[in-house]
Amino acid sequence: MSTVAEIIETMKSKFNADAASGMENVFQFSIEDGDDFFLTINDGSFEIAEGENDDPSVTLIMTTETLSGLMSGDVDGMQAFMMGQLKAEGDIMLATKLSELFPV
Question: pTM for the whole thing?
Fold first, then answer.
């Protein structure tokens, strides 16, 4: 199983800047069995930081295994949400943009 740090490195290599054009959002990842981190998307660019953001646009709560599956394409985000493996708080519709921002 991948670590959160390994998954973050994968995210860096998969980022689709075109999909982030015009976006200004913060995606908080609350990892139940690992380290929390957040993505700050700013008009085609992004930064990843450890910890918690004070004002995220959306917070995604999951395990490391679910995050790894989402990033590899082995887990469908909507299915994970419906099965309770992924919880979202805030702008839930924004969570659906992750597959465009980080295509598998």
Answer: 0.92
